[in-house]
Amino acid sequence: MTKYIFVTGGVVSSVGKGITTASLGRLLIDRGFNVVPLKIDPYINSDAGTMDPFQHGEVFVTNDGTETDLDLGHYERFLGIDLSRDSNVTTGQVYDTVIREERDGKYQGQTVQLIPHITDEIKRRIYKLGEDNDIVITEIGGTIGDFETPPFVEAIRQIGMEQGRQNVLYLHVSLIAYLGPWGESKTKPTQHSVRALLTLGIQPDIVICRCARPLTEEMRRKLSLFCGVPNRAVIEARDTRLIDEIPLTFEREGLASLVMERLRLPEREPQTSRWEEMIERLKHPEGEANIAIVGKYTEHGDAYISVKEALKHGGIANKAAVHIHWVDSEKLAENSEDEIEENFREMDGILVPGGFGYRGIEGMIVAARYARENQIPFFGLCLGVQCLVIEFARNVAGLSQAHSSEFDPDTPHPVIDWLPDQRQITQLGGTMRLGLYPCVLKENTHAHKAYQQPIILERHRHRYEVNNDYRETLEEHGLVFSGLSPDEQLVEIAEVKDHPWMLGSQFHPEFRSKPLNPHPLFRDFIAAALQRHHEEAE
Question: Is 510 a catalytic residue?
Answer without folding.
Answer: yes
